[in-house]
Amino acid sequence: MKTEIFSHAILNRSTLRFFYETTEITLEPYFIATDRDGNKVIYGKQKYGRGIEKFEYRKIANIHILDAPKFTPLIPIIPLYN
Questions:
Q1: Of 32, 35, 41, 48, whose CA is between 20 and 30 Å from 16?
Q2: Which phi and psi (to 5°) does residue 5 adopt?
Q3: What is the Cα–Cα distance from 25 to 31, expressed in whole angstroms?
Q4: Residues 59/2, Cβ–Cβ less than 8 Å
């Protein structure tokens, strides 16, 4: 279920709000991955943060997609052409 919500938010460049352990996070999600330890994670930039951060799925609860304008990624994504 988390993957579906995160994937939808990434595709639509929607901002998310969730609890990470006991801290409320507002995140512009970038991509989903698995870390070296095999934990599923999501990478993104906190709304007023400076850089990209990693958040472990197992520590995330109460996810909401915010009704806000689409965000512009900090890292430009350039499509590859053959």
A1: 35
A2: -65, -50
A3: 16
A4: no
Amino acid at 76: P
Query: What residue spans define the domains of the chain?
Result: 2-65
Q: Whole-model pTM above 0.70? A: yes
Q: What whole-number distance in Å separates Cα of residue 60 and Cα of residue 48? A: 19
Give CA angle at 11 (24, 6), nearest 5°: 35
Could you read off the pLDDT tens digit of each residue along the chain, which spans 82 residues? Answer: 899 999 999 999 999 999 999 999 999 999 999 999 999 999 999 988 888 999 999 999 999 999 988 887 766 555 555 4
According to CATH, what is the number of the domain 2-65?
2.30.30
Give the strands of the sheet with 52-56, arranged side by side.
Answer: 52-56, 40-46, 23-34, 16-20, 60-65
Greatest distance between any 2 Cα atoms in the chain: 46
